[in-house]
Structures are given as C-alpha cells and as structure tokens.
Write a structure and sequence with these properties.
Layout: H1 2-7, E1 14-18, E2 21-23, E3 40-44, H2 46-57
Antiparallel strand pairs: 1-2, 1-3
Length: 71
C-alpha cells in the first residue's frame, strides 16, 4: 500500500521481482529472504501499461512515470 502512494501504481498494477523471479501477491518479503540492502525491483505490469498506452492513443491521460525510491 505504501508503494502505491509513492509510485502511483495500484497493487494490481505492480510486479515485484527478487533474485530474478516474479513474486506472488501472497508472499511476504521477509519470508522469501529479503534483507537490508537487497535489490528488489518494482515494475509496472506490462498488460496494464499497454492498456494505459491504448487509452493515451484514444486521448485519455496517463499517470506520471514512477520516480526512483530508496527504502
């Protein structure tokens, strides 16, 4: 939820990668072994991104790109 506020991506729009694998919504970071200073990638779901781009082509607005955050 906190990342949604920072990135403007709803949880259903987010894809989380750790150690090269996409993680499921039901996995907690500490349970998969994430520690301090580990790199975790938060990406926008490609399907959602495509829908936004199609909306943009039809004249709808798109959210601002996500800033880099440090936690």
């Amino acid at each position: 939820m906190v990342l949604s506020l920072v990135t403007n991506l709803e949880p259903r729009e987010q894809r989380l990668l750790y150690r090269g694998k996409e993680r499921d919504d039901n996995e907690f970071l500490h349970m998969i072994g994430v520690r301090d200073k580990d790199k975790v990638l938060l990406l926008e779901d490609p399907a959602i991104k495509e829908m936004k781009l199609l909306g943009l082509a039809r004249g709808q607005s798109i959210n601002n790109p996500c800033p880099t955050i440090r936690v």
